Amino acid sequence: MSFIEINQNFGEHTRLLAPFIVVITIVWLVLVYYSYKKYGTKMTIIYFLPITIATLIIESAGVAGGRYYYSGYIIYISIVGGAVPLIIALAWGVNLFLFMNMGKHFISKIYEKRNYLQIIFISSVAGLFGVCLDLLEDPLAHYNNWWIWTASLKGIKFFDVPILNFIGWFVLIFFMSIATLLIERSRFSENRKVLLSFTSLSITGTTIFVVHAIIVRLFEFTGLS
Amino acid sequence: MEKTIIQFIVENIFLFLPVGILGIVITVILIFRSKKENIPEFDDLTADYKTIGKYSVNLYTLVYLFIWISIIIIGLFSNSNFIIPTVTGGIIAAIPLILLILIQRKNKNSKVL
User: Fold this and answer.
1) Does any CB of chain A come closer than 8 Å to the CB of residue B49?
2) Which domain range does residue B82 map to?
3) Is the pTM here over 0.90, yes or no?
């Protein structure tokens, strides 16, 4: 498969994919425009582009590993062998920006000190809020074939969705929020922050990789996965 | 046999390792070889409130509410057999909304959604 692929059969093997894509597109446009107006171009890049690149790699690895796949979308991008719809990667930008800001609003009312502990609190709330929405979205996505989990996957499931998926959501949003907040609150110039947001993906990615691997091993050890 | 993302990355470690090391080295250089600037010591969160009629609405709560309603509508249109997962997920996904609205009301003591 080439790096970018255009699918001619939009919506094949899926149900209600069009309204789902419309919802993501509207929310993405609203949040990117709002971020641009409030924070400017460079900060908007920091909020939306690194997470999009990170999830393109992670999702591509997930598809290449055969755990799940996507059917019926229009534009696919293949980074490491698995084809991932572009809209899914863009949706992760929405997830990070939305949940991180919801976390900021929530925590700022409880814990006002602007320190590292507040960053941990905000990121934890962001991850938990993300999982809450995914518990609604993922079973629906599985049922309507927006993304398809391989039937042979074992372990605890929530309406046919592996529980490790939700843990993956938390880990990804939690660590990406920490990285984004650290960069956002650093005293570097905006150009430096943009560069750091991309290069630090290697550190954030390694951390996510190690933590997720430990959780997977723990689940396998206890027989939950 | 399907693999986890971790297994996939380990099997392709020679692809990921050089990129990862390069990223870490550049990040360290960027952090330690740069001038620091002054930054504002607070987040301007009040700008996220938009006035709709007589209510002050948090934009992010509004966007989340839009996603929540849209996904529930899609779920209810999916199939009559899928009502239980939609309702269960809908209740869980309402928790962030409820928490945000409660905490904003508690702190502002005014007409805030």
Assistant:
1) no
2) 46-108
3) yes
| B62 found inside a domain | yes
Query: Which residues in chain A touch residue B64, judged by CB atoms under 8 angstroms apart?
Result: 98, 102, 129, 133
Q: Which residues of A touch B41 (CB under 8 A)?
A: 114
Alpha-carbon torsion (A171, A176, A181, A183), positive or negative = positive
Please report whether residue B24 resides in a domain. Answer: yes
Domain count, chain B: 2
Give a yes or no: residue B33 inside a domain: yes
Is residue B113 in a domain? no
Among B residues 75-94, those touching chain A with beta carbons less than 8 Å apart: 75, 77-79, 82, 85-86, 88-90, 92-93
Q: Which residues of A touch B38 (CB under 8 A)?
A: 187
Chain A residues in contact with B90 by the CB 8 A cut-off are 136
Type of residue found at A46: I
The per-residue pLDDT for range B39-56, each reduced to its tens digit, is 666 677 887 888 877 788
What confidence tens digit (pLDDT) does each residue in A95-123 have?
999 999 999 999 999 998 889 999 999 99
Q: Please indicate, yes or no, whether residues B56 and B102 belong to a single structural domain of this protein.
A: yes
Whether residues B99 and B50 share a domain: the answer is yes
Measured between CB atoms, does B1 come within 8 Å of chain A? yes
Interface test with A, best of B7, B8, B37, B65 (most A CBs within 10 A): B8
At residue A199's C-alpha, the angle toward residues A77 and A122, to 5°, is 90
Identify whether the C-beta of residue A93 lies closer than 8 Å to the C-beta of residue A52: yes
Domains of chain A: which residue ranges?
Answer: 4-222
- Residue A126's H or E segment, with its range, is helix A116-143
Return the ∠ at Cα A136 (arms to A89 and A33), rounded to 5°.
40
